[in-house]
Amino acid sequence: MRTKYKPWAKPYIEEHTEVMCPFDMMNSYKDYYLEIGSGKGQFLVNMAKNHPDCFFIGMERNVTCAGFTAKKLVEQEINNAKLVYANAEQVLPLINEGSVNGIFLNFSDPWPKKRHAKRRLTSDSFLNQYLRILKKGAKLIFKTDNYDLFTYSLELLENSSFKLVEANYSYDGKDNFDEITEYEADFRSQGQPIYRLILEKL
Ligand SMILES: C[S@@+](CC[C@H](N)C(=O)[O-])C[C@H]1O[C@@H](n2cnc3c(N)ncnc32)[C@H](O)[C@@H]1O
Question: Ligand 1 test: best mutation among 43, 65, 68, most atoms within 8 Å of CB?
Answer without folding.
Answer: 65
